[in-house]
Amino acid sequence: MEGVDHLAHERNKSEFDVDAMKIVWAGSPHAFVVSDRISKLVASDPGFRKDNRSTLSRKELFKNTLRKAAYAWKTIIDLHLSEEEAAKLRFYVDEPAFTDVHWGMFIPAIKGQGTEEQQQKWLPLAYKMQIIGCYAQTELGHGSNVQGLETTATFDPQTDEFIIHSPTLTSSKWWPGGLGKVATHAIAYALLIVGGREQGVHGFIVQLRSLEDHSPLPGMTVGDIGMKFGNGAYNAMDNGVLRFDHVRIPRNQMLMRVSQVTCEGKYKQSDVPRQLVYGAMLYVRQTIVADASCALSRAVCIATRYSAVRRQFGSQNGGPETQVIDYKTQQSRLFPLLASAYAFRFVGEWLKWLYADVTQRLQANDFSTLPEAHACTAGLKSLTTTATADGIEECRKLCGGHGYLCSSGLPELFAVYVPACTYEGENTVLLLQVARFLMKTVSQLGSSKKPVGTIAYMTRVEHLMQCRCGVQRGFAELSADLVEAAVAHCQLLVVSKFIEKLQQEIPGKGVKQQLEVLCNIYALFLLHKHQGDFLSTGCITPKHAALANDELRSLYSQVRPNAIALVDAFNYTDHYLGSILGCYDGNVYPKLYEAAWKDPLNESVVPDGYHQYIRPLLKQEIRTARL
Ligand SMILES: CCCCCCCCCCCCCCCCCCCCCCCC(=O)SCCNC(=O)CCNC(=O)[C@H](O)C(C)(C)COP(=O)(O)OP(=O)(O)OC[C@H]1O[C@@H](n2cnc3c(N)ncnc32)[C@H](O)[C@@H]1OP(=O)(O)O
Ligand SMILES: Cc1cc2nc3c(=O)[nH]c(=O)nc-3n(C[C@H](O)[C@H](O)[C@H](O)COP(=O)(O)OP(=O)(O)OC[C@H]3O[C@@H](n4cnc5c(N)ncnc54)[C@H](O)[C@@H]3O)c2cc1C
C-alpha cells in the first residue's frame, strides 16, 4: 500500500526523543541542519540517481561518475556551498570518485609536507580543481613497506631538476585512485638520491597529463589497473598504474617542509621529524574512522527495519507470525552492531578532536603527541574498519535471502567498504604499529617518563611492570599475541570515549538512557566475546562472566522497543540507503516485486540466446547446433 507507514507501530513504541537523538548523532544542531538539508537536496535531484548503478558496464559506470563529479562541482559553485556542505554533498552522492583522493590526500599532502611557497603555488589551483591530483605512493612490489619503494628521484645539479624513474617492473606505481584516467598531477613518493647517496622516501609533485588535451606527458606510461571486487561500486574509481622513464621535474617540486635539497645538491633535514612525510596518512585514517560509523549504521538501519518487517514462524491461532527482530538470536547478532555504530560515531568525533589538536601542535613545532596520534589513528582505523566490514556482511545474513539481492543495498555497500581494511594501511600492519607503541611505553614504565593520555592507564596495570624488561625481545615471535593486545587497547579506547560522551550533558527525553544501554551493550558484548582472555588472566571470575551474559540479554530487551527509532536517528534518506529492505516506510514486498521486473533480463519474455543455446538442447539438436 503506497503512502502507508508499515513501521508506524514500531515508531510509536519508542521511549525517547528521536529528534534530539538525531542531533546527538549529527554532532550538533548546526551539523544536523546542514546534513539534513544536503541529504534532501541530493535525494531530490535526478542528476544524482544511483539505483541503476549495478546494471552499468565499467565504461558506462566510469563515465557516469565523471558526469556526477562535474555536476556535483557545478552544484557546489552554483549554490556557493561551504567546505562543510560540499563534504556532505560528496557523502550523500555516495559514489567513490577521483575527487576523494584529490581532496582527501593530494591537498592534505601539500598542506602538511609543502613549504609556505609551495602551498601558495599549488593549493589555489587544486582548490579550484584547475589541476586534479592523486596520491601515488604504493607500487606493484611494495605497499605496506613504504621505505621499500623503488621509484627513484635523482637530483641533477646541472639542470636543477630531479629525474623521476621507475627502474623495475615492481617499481611501477600501482593502485593510486584517480591516477588511471583522470589525474593531471600526482604526489609521487620516491627514493631520493642526492650526490649518489640515498636519503629515504620523499614526496614530489609531478605533472602527469597535458592540461590542454589530457595526453600523458613524455616519459609517462599510465593507465587503469582493471576491474575490482564486486560489480559496480568501487569500479567507479580509476585506480591506476604509472611508470616513469627518466621524467624531469624542477627542484622546487619536491615537498620540502621536512627536508630540503639545495641547488648545490646539499640535502638538509629540518628539525621537524621525518614521520611528517606520513602526515597525509594520519589525516585520512582519521576520516576513515569517522566514515566507519556511517557505513555500519547504514547496514544496521537496513537490517533493523527489515527485521521488523520480516515475519517467520510462531503464528498463534492464525494470527501473524513472529517478527524476526523478536528472536533473541537475531537481537544478539544485530544489537551489538547497533551499539558499535554509536560507539564508532563517538570515538570518531574524539579522534577528529585529537587530529585537530596534533595538527595545531605540529604547526607550533611541538611534536610530542605525534606518536600517540599515530597509534590512535592507525589502531582505530584498523579496529573500526574490520568491525564494519564484518558487520555489513552480518547484516546481509540477518536479512536472509533477500539480503543477497543488489536491491537490498548490502552487497554493494560491502564491496565498496571492504577495501578500507586494506587501503591506507593494511589492518594487521597498522595493529603492529600500535603494538610497537604499546611495547615502547611498557619498556619505559617505572622511568621518569610517565605515560599520559590514552596510555595513562598502563601505570595502573601492575603486571605490566614485571614484563617491561623483556618486551623489546621477541617482538616478531610474539607478534600474533601483540596484535591481540593492540586490538584490546583500541577497544578500551572506544569504550572509554563512549563513557566520556555519557558524562556530558545530553538533552532530550530518554536520550541519555538509550545511549547508556548501548554503551553497556558494546562493553559487555566485548567482554562476552573475549571472556576466555578475561577469565584466563583472572580479570573476571566465571560468575562475573555469567552475570555479564544475563545483563546483555536484559539490555537487548530494553533496546527492542526502541530499535527502529534508534536507526531513524541516523536520519538517512531512502536515496542514501539505496535499499528496498531498509526503506523508511517498510513497504518491502511490493517494492521488491516491482524492482524485479525492471531488471534488464526481464525486458523480453524469451531471453536472448534462446534460439542458439536453449532450443537446441530441448530439441535434442545440440550436436548439430553452431555454438
Ligand atoms: C562524485 C562526487 C563528487 C563530489 C565532489 C565534491 C568535492 C568535495 C569532497 C570532499 C571529500 C573528501 C573525502 C575524503 C575522503 C578520503 C578518502 C580517501 C580514500 C583513501 C584511498 C586509499 C589511499 C591509500 O591507500 S594511500 C597509501 C597508504 N599506504 C599506507 O598506508 C602504507 C602503510 N605503511 C605505513 O604506514 C608505514 O610505512 C609503516 C608505518 C607500516 C612502516 O613501518 P616502518 O617501521 O618501516 O616505518 P618507518 O618508515 O621506519 O618509520 C617508523 C617510525 O615512524 C612512525 N610512523 C609511522 N607512520 C607514521 C605516521 N603516519 N605518522 C606518524 N608517525 C609514523 C613509527 O611509529 C615509527 O616511529 P618510532 O618512533 O621509530 O617507533
Ligand atoms: C581500493 C584501494 C585503493 C587504494 N588507493 C591507493 C592510493 O590512492 N594511493 C596509494 O598509494 N595506494 C593506494 N592503495 C594501496 C594500499 O594502500 C595498499 O594496498 C595497502 O597499503 C596494503 O599494502 P600491500 O598491498 O603492499 O599489502 P601487503 O603488505 O603486501 O599485505 C599482504 C599481507 O601481508 C601481511 N604483512 C605485510 N607486512 C607485514 C608485516 N610486517 N608483518 C606481518 N604481516 C605483514 C599483511 O597483513 C597482509 O596480510 C589502494 C588500495 C586499494 C585496495
TrEMBL record:
Main location (coarse class): other
Domain Acyl-CoA oxidase C-alpha1: 278-439
Keyword terms of this UniProt record: FAD, Fatty acid metabolism, Flavoprotein, Lipid metabolism, Oxidoreductase, Peroxisome
GO biological process, one term: fatty acid beta-oxidation using acyl-CoA oxidase
Domain of life, per lineage: Eukaryota
Name of the protein this chain belongs to: Acyl-coenzyme A oxidase
Names of required cofactors: FAD
Keyword Flavoprotein tagged: yes
Domain Acyl-coenzyme A oxidase N-terminal per the UniProt entry, residue ranges: 17-132
Entry similarity comment: Belongs to the acyl-CoA oxidase family.
Cross-referenced InterPro entries: ACOX_C_alpha1 (IPR055060), Acyl-CoA_ox_N (IPR029320), Acyl-CoA_Oxase/DH_mid-dom_sf (IPR046373), Acyl-CoA_oxidase (IPR012258), Acyl-CoA_oxidase_C (IPR002655), AcylCo_DH-like_C (IPR036250), AcylCoA_DH/ox_N_sf (IPR037069), AcylCoA_DH/oxidase_NM_dom_sf (IPR009100)
Active-site residue list: 424 (proton acceptor)
Pfam families given in the database record: ACOX, ACOX_C_alpha1, Acyl-CoA_ox_N
